[in-house]
Amino acid sequence: MIIAELILKGMLVVLALPAAYLLLSTVAAYFFKKESSQENRFLNIGVLIPAHNEENGIAQAVTDVLASNYPTEKITIFVVADNCTDRTAEKARQAGALVFERFDEVSRGKGQALDWFLKNCKESYRHTDAITVIDADVSADSNYLREISASLSQPGIQVIQGYNGVGNPEAGWRPALIDAAFNVFNHLRMAGSVKLSGTAGLKGIGMAFRTELLARYGWPCHSIVEDMEFTFLLLEDGISVHYNPDAIVRSEMVTAGKNASTQRSRWEGGRFMLVRKMSAPLFRLFATTKDRRYLFALAELTVPPLSLLVILFSLATAGAFLLLKGGWLLLALSFWLILLFYVASGQIQRHAPLSTWFYLAAAPIYILWKIPLYAAMLLKKGSSEWVRTARESEQKKS
User: Fold this and answer.
1) For residues 316 and 15, is the Cβ–Cβ distance under 8 A?
2) What Gene Ontology molecular-function terms does this entry list (predicted)?
């Protein structure tokens, strides 16, 4: 019994660290303000879309960008049709994009496709001032390019990350709960990180760079979480990622259990892989330089996903009520108060629709659905291969 109590107390102490960080980030996010300037130079922007077998949606993605609230003559759309076996390239050209076809069965993946384009097609994008990366199934807000241009027009800003949201939160409980999670992870945590450390993280889509930066780096990270890897590489080189919550892109989330499982396993499996790879280097950099940006980057990386954190809080709380008393019980209860403040604040700050608030009641079902996913990730090796998730629109047609 004594050993069990000691283990449980140790678990509570360890869990107090992410809980404290979430509380600190939540409070800091309320004080965040995006960098703003009166000047918008209306930069020449290249919109880079990596696409793998996206014939059903690529034309709409190109059309949406060209219809945005931004001077058309300052927009060039580049589509990298990567290892496509369908009519992605043809449909992208017909919609008005410059298309670059890549066939490489050995070096497969989104990061590899971006790197190939940036290193081998420099003449095609040399005229641009900035390049933004979106996916073929992403819908960009009409003011997205305007916001990107305004941010990158400011001296000293080389990299900007917009808000990555959910395009179909009303489609069911899974998209609604992902919407709630994105409001927290893709906004509150971003805003809090910028306020606390001066830099945020790349999110894979809705990110934009000064062209000279990408011409110099290419896309050097090729794992399934290449965006997070690139964030840390830029951080090591002293380059901050700025956050603009008004540069909005939205992605369609799947509702079918099988497709959702594939999508979530890929994302979170890659994240766990990066935790193993980058935790020690980030700690060493902080210990050597005393630069708080490395400490906050380490915290952002190692704080468990929300679902896993809820599972851990539940286990610790149940154990505390069975074996402990006094201040230990108060500590366990404080985790839930912090979590409630954290999740609710994300919805408040992003003005979540009522449907998202309503579906939060289904969170326990979502948590139970995630348990076997985490178990499966522990038992199998991850992959960096570009695995395309079926779109929700395709499910409706089938």
Assistant:
1) yes
2) glycosyltransferase activity
The residue assigned the tokens 């940036």 is: 118
In the chain the domains, ranked by start, together with CATH numbers, are: 2-31+278-379 (no CATH), 45-273 (3.90.550.10)
**Any alpha helices (H) in 30-155, and if so which ranges?**
58-66, 88-95, 110-120, 122-125, 144-152
Q: What sign does the CA torsion over 17, 21, 24, 26 have?
A: negative
Walk along the chain (398 residues) in steps of 10 and give the mean pLDDT of each run.
Answer: 88 96 98 84 95 94 94 97 96 97 91 96 97 94 96 94 93 88 96 96 95 96 86 93 96 68 59 82 91 91 88 92 91 96 97 91 76 66 52 51
Query: Which residue's entry shows tokens 């990107």?
Result: 148
The Cβ of residue 373 has, within 10 Å, a number of other Cβ atoms equal to 17
Q: What is the pLDDT of residue 325?
A: 87
Q: Residue 195 has which token pair? A: 């306020």
DSSP letters for 326-391: THHHHHHHHHHHHHHHHHHHHHHHTT--HHHHHHGGGHHHHHHHHHHHHHHHHHS----S-PPPPP
The pTM for the full model equals 0.88
